[in-house]
Amino acid sequence: MTTISMAQLRDHVEAKKREIGWVDDDASTDALRNKGGNRSSEKRAFLARVDARAIAAGKKPTRSYY
Fold it and tell me: Are the C-beta atoms of 60 and 32 separated by less than 8 Å?
């Protein structure tokens, strides 16, 4: 087994993304998000609480579908 640092892993992932033409922009990220069609009511409530905490802390909430 080979041990690598997190920086090496990041560099490897970034190189692979360039190799396959991956684009890291908001549209691409949003396309990969789980749209939440099968989420439980508990998970939806959890996501709402996460958003409320982010807003209370003055942060931009993560886009969630709930």
Answer: no
pTM over 0.85: no
Contact 55, 61 (CB under 8 A): yes
Structure tokens at 21: 């033409």
Which residue stretches of the chain have pLDDT < 70? 66
DSSP result, 34-52: ---TT--HHHHHHHHHHHH
Cα–Cα distances in angstroms (integers) from residue 59 to residues 2, 12, 56, in the given order: 38, 30, 7
Amino acid, single-letter form, for residue 14: E
Q: And the tokens for 61?
A: 């909430």
